[in-house]
Design a protein that fits this description.
Blueprint lengths: L11 H17 L2 H12 L5 H8 L3 H13 L3 E6 L10 E6 L7 H4 L6 H14 L1 H23 L8 H14 L4 E6 L2 E6 L6 H5 L4 H16 L9 E4 L8 E4 L1
Antiparallel strand pairs: 1-2, 3-4, 4-6, 5-6
Length: 248
Amino acid sequence: MHPAPDPGSGAPADRRFSAAVAAVTSAFGDPTRREIYLHVRSHPAVTASEVATAFSLHPNVARHHLDRLAAGGYLEVGLERSSTAGAGRPSKRYRAADGPGTDPTLDLVSQRDDLVVSLLAEALELLGPAEAERMAERVGEDYGRTLAERMEPGEGQRSLRAAMHAIADALTAHGFAAHAEDRGDSTAVVAEHCPFGEAAAQHPVICAVDRGMVRGLLAGLCGSAVEAPIPVVLSSRARGDDACAALV
């Protein structure tokens, strides 16, 4: 029996392909979830309750599938008040996302532009380590908040634990091959792959981008329900560790 291949070994293109497969598998590995995605594509602006009725599911189960698809960027979420619902709370409605990177078949062959990443790394170095880290984290946090707004429009109300699991899905969809681990009262997000490749090892300041993403996603997904803390970095591939891990 041959040993299982190390996900961190192999050519960069192979690792990128593995991360892309992980992202698509995370979103579409469940057959019910695949059918729900196709249903949303043909019935835009559906609610979790409507999907639950169509598939004979509990509304919480339908919402879980829809949120996993939204975390991967395959669905967009909006708030709409039904004309027959009166003045109650608006419903979350799901639509298939448009634009580059939203077709799961295209995600499998997407390629990172190494030249642009190298240019980013050199530009950050010119700023000096302190300013570069602040800027990289700010950009990551702003992007994380944007992602969270797509997943949880309006004011987010997820618990920290639920948010960290959603964050792992979102990071996986961005090439980090991430998963969440509950550790007692805390939850860690562990990323087995870095989409920035060798550039992050040569210029560790780039890691501030994904730290900022986690912080921005936390703030957006938790809203005023929980004060989103700053994630504690447990390990980093840029420092020679086997994986990147952040704990809340």
